[in-house]
Amino acid sequence: MLCKSLISLSLAATAVLANKKPGLHYDPNTISSCAYWFDNDDGTPCETVRRRWEVSPETFHEWNPSVTVDCKNWNYWSYCVAIPDVTTSSTTRPKPSATAMAPPPRHPADSWIDRGCYLIWDKMPLDKYNSAVSSSNLNHSSCQNACWADSFRFAGFRASTECWCSNSIVGRSTDGDPDCNLRCSGNSMEFCGGKDKFDMFEGSYTLRPLSQTTSIPTSTSKPPSYTSESSTSPSKSPTSTSTTSTSSGSDRYTNKTDILTFATALVTLLSLRAW
């Protein structure tokens, strides 16, 4: 009995090990986004691997189609045991936006979405432990703001005092695990992970289009009022023109009278000569 127990413990210990690339033959239909592989080179039972990596039978079969949900066709192959940003909990959570990216630091995050409690293994840690955040006064906003300012998409909390930043999550969701309920050192109303588990939050920011409305600047100076000038200072030109027109008409009338008078006198003179 003791011998069997030691063997079981040994097998469980080997199940911890995983690599980023398969070291053995593997099913070509294995999920293409696999992040970590377990090399079954020592006959570790299928159930032990799934239990240690907290993968359900259905999910393990989805990742490794050659293995059935009851662990049939288990071979000395490499098997996928983790993929990025996976949630295996029965609790439905919003999926990360397909357009999400490392945010520009100058814009604050619109919101932070609680992605739940995760077990992150030592061989696939989060990107950065943020030592700039006070471990004795840790709260959600202090860590989230620090991660966002460093262009990280995720903020993780562990052991009440640790702030971690990352642009991806590789691990198992453990929602409902009683071990992930430690209070934050700087705010007893918030939870900051567990002894070896992380509360993960994802920040989001929506790019806003620039306004298409263009305002036309208005001038405060008034244009000169030509109407006002005309009414206050009448032009002398029309009067002059009118006078000129009247004078010309009078001259023409006078000239005609002189001609008629001259013609009459001439006719009279010629008549007298004829007599």
From TrEMBL:
Keywords: Signal. Residues 1-18 form the signal peptide. Residues 211-252 are annotated as: Disordered. Residues 111-204 form the WSC domain. Residues 211-250 have a biased composition (Low complexity). This is WSC domain-containing protein. It comes from [Torrubiella] hemipterigena.
